[in-house]
Automatic annotation (TrEMBL):
Keywords: Flavoprotein, Oxidoreductase. It comes from Pseudobdellovibrio exovorus JSS. This is FAD/NAD(P)-binding domain-containing protein. GO terms for molecular function: oxidoreductase activity. InterPro entries: FAD/NAD-bd_sf, FAD/NAD-binding_dom, Ferredoxin-NADP_redctase_2.
Amino acid sequence: MLKTEYDVVIVGGSHAGLSAAMALGRMRRSVLICDDSRPRNQISSHANNIAGSDGVSPEKWRQQARHDLEKYKTIQLINATVHKVEKRQLQFHVELSSKEVVHARKIILAHGIQDKLPDVTGFQELWGKSVFHCPYCHGFEVQDQRLGVVGSGAYVEHMLPMILGLSKDVMVFTNGASDLSKDFVTALKKKQIPLIQSPIACLGYEGQKLQFIEFKNHPRIERDALFVGPQLPISMRVNFDKQLGLEKNEMGLYKVAEMGRTNIAGVLAAGDIVTLQQSVVNAVSSGQSAGAWATFELLSEDFHQF
């Protein structure tokens, strides 16, 4: 049974949201986690670059985290989407997809982002399998293979040196006209790194394995894996910026100060919605920080209330 009043409502129950809940639960704050069971990395079979749990299944991590939270009796988790959050004086009015309404003193947003991929056959189908966004998360598994970087501008100039640390066989695909700097293009020529600016027609694949890239006006090229940059601005899975008056930066992410504090008092944000350094470890860390700050604010407010 849902209560009507909580200290904190957490929107999103994956790595950031569950970590925020644990910090709050350990300090005996009442928490409602609202999760719609659509985590960003649900298609990934493993999550890497996690000391102590390298290669863990993201879903198994969530199952274990939910199990760990069971001992904290002040925490409640429901399968629901938050449709609306409205600040009313000292509380937040939260409307759920179940038509129920709850109230909270604090809100932690941890709902994740929506990946936007090139509208080309193969990218969505191979996402998380042969097409990746993070070399730290997936690069080691494709080391010394035929790799490609898809994108343009600052992303490619930032990403290419890292991918070259994984393989000597790397090519750059801009999927059309690019805005790469002259110095970068010169460096590509000197290092004999192919730069293909033809639009991509489709990705050829078998099962979960990339086979080749088909272009609109360039010969087919065989590759084993691709790293794709984000399409800015970032697309949120849920948009609360207009409902709550939250500020975003030029990349489409929520602007946050230390500990995940947004520009709206009582609202914190954590995980992929606040940074382009998107990983399980960063989500866990920022979630825990947001939970800790919410705890501090709650207990400080109680102490100063007469």
